[in-house]
Amino acid sequence: MINVDRLIFEYPNLRALDEVSFYIPQGSITALVGPNGAGKTTLLRCMAALEQPVSGDIRINNIDVLEHPRECHRIIGYLSDFFGLYDRLTVRQCLHYVARAQGIAEEDCAAAIARVSKGLHITDRLDVLAGTLSRGLRQRVAIAQAIIHSPRVVLLDEPASGLDPEARHELAELFLELQQQGMTLLVSSHILAELEAYSTDMLVLREGKIIEQVTIKAHAHAQDFKLVLASPVENLATLLQQIDKIKLLKNEYNQTVLLQVQGDSLQQHELLKNLLAQNLPVCEFAKITSNLQDTYLETIRHRS
Amino acid sequence: MNLNPEFQRQLQLEFSQARLIGVPLILGVIFALTYIIDDYQFASVTTRSALGLFLLMVSFWGARQAVDSVLEEQRSHTWDTQRLSALNPWTMMIGKLLGSTLVVWYGGVICLIVYAISAPNANNFMWVCSYAITSGLLVQSVSLMLSLCALRKGQINGNSIIIGLAILAAFTIGSFIMPLSEDPQNTQNAVDVTWYGLNTTVQSLSLVSVFLALFWCVVGNYRLMAQELRIRTLPWVWLSFALFLIFYIGGFIPAEKFGDYFYTVAFSICLTLSYFAVFTEHHEPMRIKRLFTYVAAENWWRSAEELPLWCVTFVLAILVAIPLSFTHPADIEELHIYPLTILLLLLRDIGIFLFFNYGKNPQRAFSLTLLSLILLYGVFPSIFTAAKLKGMVVLFFPLISDSTILSIFCMSLQSALIWYLLYKRWLESV
């Protein structure tokens, strides 16, 4: 869906993006992470055809963004870190303007406004001036503006900054909903906890370079599990290797092991039964959720 | 009804109920006062006030509205939303220009109605109206253009300068329209003027000229808006404007002297436009780097898109300088017209401006350049003239030299030095 190839962007005396290349598959939610000043906003602005790079290639849905920026604008939604709302207009007027400006016919505007305002829980605020809204609500209106034309790709720059935990949770749910609708999302943030809930992929940007692209939730059929026994078992590794659809990743003192388990929850249940049937003194059998923070820090450590 | 969305939004913002009632109310009070002053009738005071108020509103208030329609977007961080919209440059530009100023025209129309009622003679009403409306549109259009230029340069708080210029324009228009409105003889006994052998009146020609200026202003706004919306543009409009200006101003040269003066006029226009372009365009070092990258990749189309506008009129000036050199233009008192020396002078001045522009504080580039040019053109030559050191005067102002070779040498030296320093600074900034 998104293909960036050897993208270079320079500010005077500073190369903000240095031969950045990556690919983002359709329907994914990619977290764009990196420290402050890494080039996240510049990258998003280049992808939204708001900035002109020195060289490189950006393709979104096979549209050459640098050659045809206006065509690209029609299929993307962009949320800037400033939200970009008209404070003197009501929420309805803001949404109506963006809908019309994005080419939605006058007669279809009301339906489009109703759809996005329902999705973002702002239906009761439609006739309120945008300037009087709280930060959380402003952010929701801004997202509504960004997706009102049902773009195929949504680029979001620090969407959750300044939001309370409840609003962040709602935001995560919204992103998953947009993903289910077939949209591809690229979300930049330096707060990893907020990305954990919904990201499928992670791009790590540091000093203008992509240093890692990691898939976080791609293999739903293969899960990592931690197995802890009440006491060590001598031939634990041999026993486990005899069981189908599991792979031993790590063995600590024949008491704590890390396993990769193939299959769904029913098969996981069968595995546990199998372990107990072999008289193993199981006291813990738990799924290990991939931790974005750990992955990120590990990447940074590896590269530095 | 599928109304222009930008126009509709501007109306929602600017045409409030308070203004809808307030504007006629305030004007009503003012005209009630002039009615009393005019001895309970609509007479000369009301006429002058109506026209004066019209000019003040469409120029001062109109300019402010037009400027804010662009710069306010940047200040409110909504400009990116607009740039990402599917609106084309024309829709966006017209929406801003007409939408933001409609409330001004609402008041303006009231003034013109009062003027029509109170004017002692209706003979030249259409003339006055045509001048007033076209000039008002021109001032607003120029303001929009300057605000788009300011936006590109990042000078988003530059309202006061643009509005100051608009007030100046209002007074200029007023000084032309007021006598016309008071004395109908002004139109009847108008002075004749010849343009390419076509005899017409000053009034007619100036009205046509204002129309043409408005047309080019709208074209300029369209191009600037297109660039803001990331539509790739080649500099052919700037070239067309330069050629139009040469053609238009060339029409005022008397037929018998056309051959002698045409190239001088064309050359002067190219120089003026080059200065204008260099002072109004946004000069970022990275643009030149992109230009060099495209040239290196032999991507000529992209190279032309990145080419600064002053280069276009500078090349045109070189082309005009060739025939001009053969016509041996007459000296202006002690000044010799050496086309190549003048081109080098232009190159030096552009180099100075760009040198300051690529510095740490590009916002001051214009004032620093102005100061430098005052020193180079005025102070240094005056000091050396007072000291009777003509050789040194020639170094700074080579057009007074009797030797073409010497003047070219002096200017080449200066230009080479400035462009060397400019190159060094550019390298430091990319």
> Which CATH architecture of the largest domain in chain A would you pick?
3-Layer(aba) Sandwich
What would you report as the Rg of chain A, rounded to the nearest angstrom?
23 Å
Query: How many independent structural domains of chain B?
Result: 3
Distance between the termini of chain B: 50 Å
Strand order of the largest sheet of chain B: 1-2
Provide the low-confidence segments of chain B as ranges: none
In short:
With 304 residues, chain A is an alpha/beta fold.
Entry keywords:
heterodimer, A: 304 residues, alpha/beta, Rossmann fold, Alpha-Beta Plaits, 2 domains, globular, B: 430 residues, mainly alpha, two-stranded antiparallel ribbon, 2 strands
Task: Give the secondary structure arrangement, pairings included.
The complex is a heterodimer of chains A (304) and B (430).
Chain A: E1 2-11, E2 14-24, E3 29-33, H1 40-47, E4 55-60, E5 63-64, H2 69-75, E6 76-79, H3 91-101, H4 106-119, H5 135-147, E7 153-157, H6 165-180, E8 184-189, H7 192-196, E9 201-206, E10 209-215, E11 222-229, H8 236-241, E12 246-252, E13 256-262, H9 265-277, E14 282-287, H10 292-303
Parallel strand pairs in A: 3-8, 3-9, 6-7, 7-8
Antiparallel strand pairs in A: 1-2, 1-4, 4-5, 9-10, 11-13, 11-14, 12-13
Chain B: H1 5-14, H2 17-37, H3 44-75, H4 79-83, H5 89-118, H6 125-153, H7 159-182, H8 185-188, E1 192-195, E2 198-201, H9 202-228, H10 236-250, H11 258-280, H12 285-296, H13 300-306, H14 309-327, H15 339-357, H16 365-386, H17 390-396, H18 404-429
Antiparallel strand pairs in B: 1-2
Helix pairs in contact in B: 1-5, 2-3, 2-5, 3-5, 3-6, 3-7, 5-6, 5-9, 6-7, 6-9, 10-11, 11-14, 11-15, 12-13, 15-16, 15-18, 16-17
